[in-house]
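Help wanted!
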Amino acid sequence: MNNPITNRTVKTIGIIGGGQLGLMIAEQAHCLGLQSICLDPAADAPAFAVCDAHIVARFDDAQALAELCRRSDAVTYEFENVPGGILVPLCEKYNIPQGYRPLYDSQDRLREKTNAREHGLLTPRFAAVNDEASLLAAVRTLGLPAVLKTRTLGYDGHGQCVLREEADLARARELLSVPCILEEFVPFDFEASVVLVADGRQVVSFPVGRNIHRDGILDRCIVPADADPTLLDRMRIESERFMRACGYRGILAIEYFVKGNDIYFNEMAPRPHNSGHYTIEGCTTNQFRELVRYLAGEPLHRPELTAPTVMKNILGEDLEAAVRIAAERHPNVCVHLYGKSESRPKRKMGHITFVGMTEEEFERNWSDRFVK
Ligand code: AMP
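Answered by r_m:
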């Protein structure tokens, strides 16, 4: 398929952001015989080890971004905080097939949840909060416990706090220096996510994973999620319907809370997702490859799970254990280390996919190898 702007065949994928997601997009571009070029401010960005070319520049360097776009036939982004002021003019001139819309809709939690509701998904009840008075009003309406979150730039549990009783409201003050959202606390049974890719003709979705977080960071993803298959089907169908209703193209990951039969939208990201890493070895095709196929204008493949799979995130504190496990060469234990130059506690350094393994087997045979 051609780049609609230059009318050239798509041969080079441009990636804004050179973290582990950029690295895995570049790897899958290679698997499809394509090249990649990546832009990141860090000279030692993980993706640079794999990309065919790279540009070291800040994300707000308009000239460098334009150069990335000129040297690419289709451009994508690997993180969701690319500012509209930068991306919109680029979208007008270059081939950035996902466009700015899904990013715009996901960059502000208030807009994101309003959009999810308007397009048919159930969300926790929520209210905008800008100061102490609106916080008190929101607490009166939603009750406690509730979760206060900054509307923008929150990730992995940063920029949020749970308010359990009136006394906690004082703690909330420091967040209130920026616009916030208060959400009803959902005492969920479990968390789950779906990754989807749409090309305007079809939407394909990957099997639902059950996600276990620790300190707000994804720790493990278990697939298939051990839940009522009808509910999991409904989650996939509702996600696909949502993606179509919004008119999004490209990749989208949606995170949910499940309580009884209710599936609550929590948040979304228009990029490959940590909870979708298991797809590299656990499915017949993976989230990165389908994103690249979409960017290259090729027909999407519908993924199937090949075996039960557990994905364990490797944060800095687990890096040594992961290196040891890699050296032991276990069959069907796939250790991905991202090659980040500095390891820190809570920093994502890699992940391990245990293919053909249930959660029980993981707990019995492997969980003791990692920090609890
Ligand atoms: P988020 O950054 O919104 O994904 O939140 C990080 C984690 O905090 C989630 O994965 C949940 O475990 C928890 N959390 C966030 N919002 C809520 C909520 N409204 N009710 C219950 N738990 C929540």
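OP: Thanks! One thing I noticed: The radius of gyration is 20 Å.
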